[in-house]
Amino acid sequence: MRNLDETTITQAVIARHAKTTNRRLKTVMTSLVRHLHGFAREVDLTEAEWVAGIEFLTAVGHTCSPTRQEFILLSDTLGLSTLVAAQNHRKPVGCTEATVFGPFHVEGSPERPLGADVANGAEGEPCFVRGSIRGLAGEPVAGAVIEVWQADAKGLYDVQYEAFDEHRARATLRSAPDGGYHFLGIVATPYPIPHDGPVGQLLDALNRHPWRPAHLHFRISAPGYETLVTHVFRDGDPYLDSDAVFGVRSSLVADWVHHEGGPAPDGRMLDTPFSTLDFDFVLNPARKEG
Ligand code: BEZ
Ligand code: FE
C-alpha cells in the first residue's frame, strides 16, 4: 500500500489488522486508531502539538515509580476512570454506588477488630464511623471484608510520608454477624491530588484545581456479592461539585456530625471534640458466570 494520504491512511492502518487473531485486541485497536485519527483531524493537529503530546506522555511515564502512578492520575483527571467504573458497575437501584479506586489503596492492610482505632496516630479529629453491610433484599452480610483508607488532617495518606513506618488511617475489618461495622477513624479533609508532576502542569494550563472533596475510601467484598469500591463524602465540602477526578455521587454524600464533647459511641465520656458518621452499604449480588 503506497501513496497514502490524509483521506486513506486510517483505513490502511485498520486493514493491517486483518490477520489479528485476538478478536478483542482487534476490536479495541481498530477503534483506537479510528478515534485517534479522528481526533487529529478534528483539531487539525500541528507537528509541534504532536511533539508536545509525545513529550507530555514521556514525562508522565518518567514520573511513575513504585509509589506514584501518574498514568492513573491522568486517567482520573480526564474522567476516564469514572467512565470505566460507571460502565463496569451498573447496579440495580438501591445498591451503593461505586466510584474511583484512586492510587492510595494498599493490598493487605492490617486486620483490626471491629471498634478498633483505625487512625493509629494519624492526625485529625476523631470520627466514630458505624453502619451496616446488607444485600439488596436487606439481608445482613456477615464477615464481609471491609477495607478502609483515608488521608489525615494534612491531606496525606500514610504511604505518602517519607518516614512511613506503619499503617495509619487504614485497616481491614470484618462485619459482625448482623452485618454491622464500626471503627474509630478521623474526620476527612479536602486534599489536592499529587500535582507536582506533568498532570499537575496540565491542570494548571487548563485553569483547573487539583482538589478532592473530603472522603473515606472503602472496598467491601463478600462471597456471593460484587466487590464494592466506593467513597463516603462529607456533606458541605466546598469541592463536592468540582472534584478533580469526577468521583462524587450524591448518594455517597453523608452528614458527618460534629460534637463538642460528651458521651461517645464507644461508651467513653470525651471532653474533646469528635464527630460521628453513620453509613450503610448495600451490596449487589454477584453476576452469575456463564
Ligand atoms: C484518592 O482519592 O485517593 C485519589 C483518587 C484519584 C486520584 C488521586 C487520589
Ligand atoms: Fe482519597
TrEMBL record:
PROSITE patterns xrefs: INTRADIOL_DIOXYGENAS
GO biological process: catechol-containing compound metabolic process
The enzyme's E.C. designation: 1.13.11.1
Intradiol ring-cleavage dioxygenases domain location: 129-157
GO molecular function annotation: catechol 1,2-dioxygenase activity; ferric iron binding
Record flagged with keyword Oxidoreductase: yes
Keywords assigned by UniProt, alphabetized: Dioxygenase, Iron, Metal-binding, Oxidoreductase
Swiss-Prot/TrEMBL cofactor(s): Fe(3+)
Family label: Belongs to the intradiol ring-cleavage dioxygenase family.
UniProt protein name: Catechol 1,2-dioxygenase
